[in-house]
Amino acid sequence: MKSFSILLSLACIAIASPFFDAQAPFGDGLMNSYPGFTLDLNAQRLIQTEGEIPVWVSELEKIQMKAQGVKFFDITDTQALGTSTHLRLQDKAKFPSPNATEKVRPILKTLSTKGPKENLEKFSSFRTRHYRSDTGKQSQQWLLSRIREVITNESASKSLRKLISHSEFLHSWGQNSIIVRINGSSTTDDGVIIVGAHQDSTNMWPFLPAPGADDDGSGSVTILESYRALIAADFHPERTVEFHWYSAEEGGLLGSQAVALDYEARSVNVVAMSQFDMTAWVKRGTREEVGIITDYTDAGVTKFNKALVDLYLDIPYIEARQIF
Questions:
Q1: Angle in degrees, CA 301, 189, 276, rounded to 5
Q2: Across residues 239-263, what is the average pLDDT?
Q3: How many CB atoms lie within 10 A of CB 64?
Q4: Stretch 162-180: mean pLDDT, rounded?
Q5: Which of these, 219, 246, 311, 312, could form a disulfide with 276 (CB 3.0-4.6 Å)?
Q6: Contact 235, 133 (CB under 8 A)
């Protein structure tokens, strides 16, 4: 419930080589032993870790890095991200104190854990949602169908459905990212608010089962429930709102980088973006709290999210670091 409240409030502003061992653990016949995967273990990937020069590694070495807990970006296909000469020059968006309380509080009362639990049971029933697996593609198709055929068709009014689009952002690896867009009514403000989560999952080794109930099935169904509640309330935003379910986060943020590169190329005016990851699990013996990432984030959005927690939730936030 805590995450539903935060992102509903955010949406309403739219009205606003040391990493691996040289000894590979797998034999040459590995792929033959695990059908249902399109994974070239010898493929070369360009990997960026914090504070280091990008290095080329094999797909197998990248898997080993992941298993060892090394955080990285796979920038093989997105080396130009952030370098476009026609990036829009504009002042950073300014965020007021949360001011849509009259709109938000009635919607909060309609939130339920029933739908997210049912969706999560199905979503985590796929053997793995690895982005290069057959079941990863199947889980993505199920999620898209669930959003479009069930949530939107059952919850949105006829007039609101005209403003909503559902699309697959195509990726070469098979599991596509999903983008749901609610077009804003403003003719002068082309800003876009994005609420996101990643739909894929992985184990320490990609061929093992990975139900991914918390990472990040929980974030995926959290933003889905928030989308349902908004459209059920006949939410007509002034500023366009998008919900994103990214593919291949576990492979080095591949899906979100591809979307960002496309948005940069098209000069999409993204005013704010909040990502929801691992929203369900609380370690035994610890208190429930909201972790707000403070590194590699926009200070204005971070401050606004903190204000939303203070206003709408009965649990505190803590500052956390992602350290990609």
A1: 30
A2: 98
A3: 22
A4: 98
A5: 219
A6: no
User: What pLDDT, in 10s, does the model give residues 68-111?
Assistant: 999 999 999 999 999 886 666 566 788 989 988 999 999 999 99
For residue 116, give the H/E element and its range.
helix 114-123
First vs last C-alpha separation in the chain: 27
For 314, residues 6+ apart whose C-beta sits below 8 A from its C-beta are none
Q: Which of 2, 7, 6, 5 is nearest to 244 (CA)?
A: 7
List, in order of start, the domains of the chain with CATH numbers. 2-16+87-320 (3.40.630.10)
Nearest to 234 by CA among 168, 128, 162, 306: 162
Give the pLDDT of residue 125. 98
- Report residue 298 CA to chain centroid gap: 17
Residue 19 has pLDDT above 70, yes or no: no
Cis peptide bond N-terminal to 216, omega within 30: yes
Environment class of 321 (CB within 10 Å of its CB; exposed 0-12, middle 13-18, buried 19+): exposed
Stretch among 1-15, 192-206, 226-240, 294-308 having the lowest mean pLDDT: 1-15
Instruction: Tell me the average pLDDT of the chain.
Output: 90
Q: Could you tell me the two tokens for 295? A: 């590194």
Residue with tokens 């280091």: 52
Question: Which H/E stretch holds residue 195?
Answer: strand 192-198
- Residue 52 and residue 323 in contact, taking contact as beta carbons nearer than 8 Å: no
Give the burial class of 58: count Cβ atoms within 10 A of its Cβ; 0-12 exposed, 13-18 middle, 19 or more buried: middle
pLDDT per position as a tens digit, 40-79: 999 999 999 999 999 999 999 999 999 999 999 999 999 9
Q: Which of 128, 227, 234 is nearest to 179 (CA)?
A: 227
Distance of CA 285 to the CA centre of its chain: 28
